[in-house]
Amino acid sequence: MNQTPDPAQTGPPSPAAHPSVPGHPAEHGHSAEHEHSAEHGHAAEHGHAAEHGRRAAHRLPHTVIQPSQGWASLRLRELWDYRDLLYFLVWRDIKVRYKQTFLGAGWAIIQPFATMVVFSLFFGKLARISSDGLPYPVFTFCALIPWQLFAFALNEASNSLVANERLVTKVYFPRLAIPIAGVLAGLVDFSIAFVVLLCMMLFYGIIPTIAVVTLPLFVLLAVATALAVGLWLSALNVQYRDVRYTIPFITQFWLFITPIAYPSSLVPEKWRALYGLNPMAGVVEGFRWALLGRGGSPGPMVFVSAAVVAVLLFGGLAYFRRMERTFADVV
Q1: Hey, how many other C-beta atoms are within 10 angstroms of the C-beta on 49?
Q2: pLDDT in tens, 135-168
Q3: Measured distance CA(1)–CA(4) in Å, rounded
Q4: CA separation (Å) from 138 to 57, 119, 199, 216, 291?
Q5: H-only helix segments in 159-267
């Protein structure tokens, strides 16, 4: 007969006989090993991810912005990197100039044309000032076109940093782009008025000579003159706000020492080259020579004017870059 074994005789069950019983010491051992392995795996994964992140960070470009010390380098390459920003600044200045205006771009014609009428009446008719054998209206208007470009560009460049105060204080970019944009925006008005000058030349029967191919050089000289003086005045205007009140006076005084209402032939021959110390004298005489084709080449005067502009421009760039580090704090 089969008998059921007595539990007291058989003793407690062996641990090996119940490997899957929860809470059993063997189960605790296996769980601890699995948890340790999992933690080690997660730590290894985090380590690999961190190492991969560090390697990727080393491959990314880093830009460190630091204030310049002393006479800073010009960093013109940096300006080229921001050429898209320069384009949009120029476009913004052009749009703002003609926004909500009744005549719009017509002001580019009205201003020099009205000045030409006044000069023709008082200097041409009443004062009988010589115009080197040319009709006085076209003689004067030919000089007013580059002068209008210079005067507008000088005013815009000189006040550009103060006018863009919020932009200067909130984001980094080459501050040099602001006065340059103000100068380049004036080329639109110049182009419009230049068309009127061509119509006047056609009306008076004046045909340009081969010297007209040099005209872009005189346009460049006018732009460089405005930028050179504008860089000095814009940097000073940030430090001393009364500089802006001197700009109209400087422009008006400069107008009368430039041969616009009168020819440079009134200046004695021996002093004519020194007259080129006024850069706009070389620009105006160059325009008349290139377009109207009267008189000899103003070579010595233009060379002196170009040398003066080169000195002013290089000095203005260096001074502007030196003061640039304080613009955001002072403006």
Answers
A1: 10
A2: 999 999 999 999 999 999 999 999 999 988 888 8
A3: 10
A4: 65, 11, 10, 19, 10
A5: 160-163, 165-170, 177-203, 215-239, 243-256
